[in-house]
Amino acid sequence: MSAVILDHITKTYENGKVTAVDDVSLEVSPGELFGLIGPDGAGKTSVFRILTTLLLPEKGTASVLGFDCVKNYREIRNRVGYMPGRFSLYQDLTVAENLHFFATLFGTTIEENYTLIKDIYEQIKPFSNRRAGKLSGGMKQKLALCCALIHKPEVLFLDEPTTGVDVVSRKEFWAMLQQLKQQGITIMVSTPYMDEAVLCERIALIQAGRIMSVDTPEKIIDTFPAQLFAVKAADIYRLLTDLRNDPATESCYTFGEYLHITFRGHPDTNPQQLQEWLEQRGHRNVAVKQIRATIEDSFIRLMNEA
Amino acid sequence: MKQLLVFIRKEFYHVFRDRRTLLIMFGLPVAQIVLFGFALTSEVKNISLIIIDQARDVNSQELTGKIKSSAYFITDESVTDYNDIEKAFKQGTARCALIIPAGFGNDLLHGGSAPVQILTDGSDPNTAKTVVNYLTSIMTGYQQELSKTPPLRYLIQPELRMLYNEEGNGSLNFIPGVMALVLMIVCTALTSVSVVREKELGTMEILLVSPFRPLLVLVAKAIPYLVLSLANFLLILFLSVFVLDVTVKGSILLLVAESMLFITTCLSFGLMISNTTNSQQTALLLSMMGMMLPTMIFTGFMFPLENMPVPFQVISNIVPARWYFLIIKAVMLKGLGFGYVWKETLVLTGMMLATLGIALKNFKTRLS
Q1: Are A81 and A248 in contact (CB under 8 A)?
Q2: pLDDT tens for residues A204-226?
Q3: Quick one: pLDDT band at residue B361, thresholds 50, 70, 90?
Q4: What keywords appear on the UniProt entry (chain A) (predicted)?
Q5: Which domain CATH number covers A250?
Q6: Which among B2, B14, B206 is the nearest to A92, CB-wise?
Q7: How many domains are there within chain B?
Q8: Judgement on whether residues B232 and B178 belong to the same structural domain of the protein
């Protein structure tokens, strides 16, 4: 049985004027590390709040561990761990006090489940007498994760846990999630960072409240239907306008220092031809390579198709 | 149970670690007591009085002596020119003047009556009237002293007593009012803010997604403020007894019990407000405007309710502080027992149950 099930869930705000979640269906298997990937405002937080029983969906049903999110909300609240997107611990309580408070609130003690949080908590232990409000961003996230984990939840919901956290802490955080997965906890995590998608077992790409694709990151990349080229030249802006104005161009967008480009109906363009063609049009220092798509490329393609 | 205790302890941490809350909690009652006790008093004292004694005889000296020895006046005899009086009035250095004309003693003893002139600053009519009353009563006293045998055969002699407050201590009336006001502010405002703060910080989300019963959140919020408000009540009582010389006539136990009832009512109002708002500012504004103003106006300790138009008198019935004020006045100042305040207690209990019921019923177990 799936750990999390969303079945045609729709959620609107302001009396139906704003649709946050639009007919979303997906399933998360037990023990899976599942990622909900999408930009700000895509509806990730609304999905999380419906699953954590904080919001009622307008249409559809949702269940966690077999319990209905509307009818059996109390059972769900007893069994899941939830870390909201915003830092939501008590800023005026110390690290140790926060942890102790949440442990007691969930009817357990720090000692009982210490093994679960040990690796994470050891890192913030030197600051255990510091007020939570005075911690750095990364340490706050670690503390919040400890507090969400302390009662050994069966399903862990992490809403944008790495937003606003530095690159090193983000890496550490994902390493922690992999460890937690080893312990058999089902983890559902949302993030706006496409590069984090490959760290999940399966992902759902969400945009404007709709799920565009649900699969493993590899499969999503493999099903990218066109040849993808990365191009750069001395005058990148002229290159972009030239390519966008060309009728053969299907899509062209900036990606770091390169432009990513796909063409209509030329199944076997080779980079050499493309480079010559561009040099003929007066571009200097042209570099062209054929590349494998990333999640972001897939996301942009799916978004444009929709 | 253990969860509740830990939650309550957490609430105390919040209060004691936030200087602003502490200041409102314990600074406010002290400030109010000092303000009402010493600054906003309705008693008229230390009036600057100019005496121009043109008679300079035994009787005029005796009369001025009596005026000087009363605690109400600060006399100034340096002015001799009649025209200087108005100058002093305009400069604000004097608020009234007494002119004893030449030949005062002679007229009094031999003519049977002697005129004196009293001038007061009528721009403040209340003070002016009080001053005139003070001066006339001093003169009447002196006049009776002089005429050993009563000149009239039929004399009505009023014997005055101000019951429950013999020395006319103005503090007695406002102490119960200040109690009602402070408890109202502390309980309603701080409780509502403390619940809304959890919503604003996002901790409410975590609290809801936990095995902890949502209703217990309200209980855990209310208990610390109940304890702190009770401490506050005792602080006010202590200040009134030892700083303002108010004696508590009735049973302290009954006083505490009635205050508990009032505090619970205020807490329920606070919880009710916190259910309907999502920002600390709105909650504070609502509890200040919605609670403090009606409490000040409709309780009856600043403005007598009897003087208000009937619609306002009707409105005053729904202000809980009004009933608490009546109870405290009866118990603390008159020393009455429960038998005399059961009606007010019943009204207050009804209000408490109604608001608590609404607050509990409207508490959301989800975000919206």
Answers
A1: no
A2: 999 999 999 999 999 999 998 88
A3: confident
A4: ATP-binding, Nodulation, Nucleotide-binding, Transport
A5: 3.30.70.2070
A6: B14
A7: 2
A8: yes
Contacts of A78 in chain B (CB under 8 A): 211
CA B115 vs CA B51, B58, B85, B108, B118: distances in Å:
14, 16, 18, 9, 10
The model's pTM is 0.79
pLDDT band at B256 (very low <50, low <70, confident <90, very high): very high
Q: Indicate whether B225 and B109 sit together in one domain.
A: no
Q: Do residues B134 and B204 share a domain?
A: no
Question: Smallest CA–CA separation between A108 and chain B, in Å?
Answer: 10
Domain extent at residue A199? 4-216
Q: CATH number of the domain that A44 lies in?
A: 3.40.50.300
Q: Work out whether the CA dihedral B145, B151, B153, B158 comes out positive or negative.
A: negative
Instruction: Describe the crossing of helices B214-242 and B2-17 by its angle, rounded to 10 degrees.
Output: 50
My answer on whether A136 and A283 are in the same domain is no
The answer on B118 and B26 residing in a single domain is: no
Interface predicted TM-score (ipTM) of this complex, two decimals: 0.86
Report residues of chain A scoring pLDDT below 70: 266-267
Which residues make Cβ contacts (< 8 Å) with residue B244, sequence separation at least 6? Answer: B33, B37, B169, B171, B175
Examine the domain organization and report whether B176 and B269 are in the same domain: yes
Residue B155 reports pLDDT greater than 90: no
Cβ contact A104–B211 (<8 Å): no
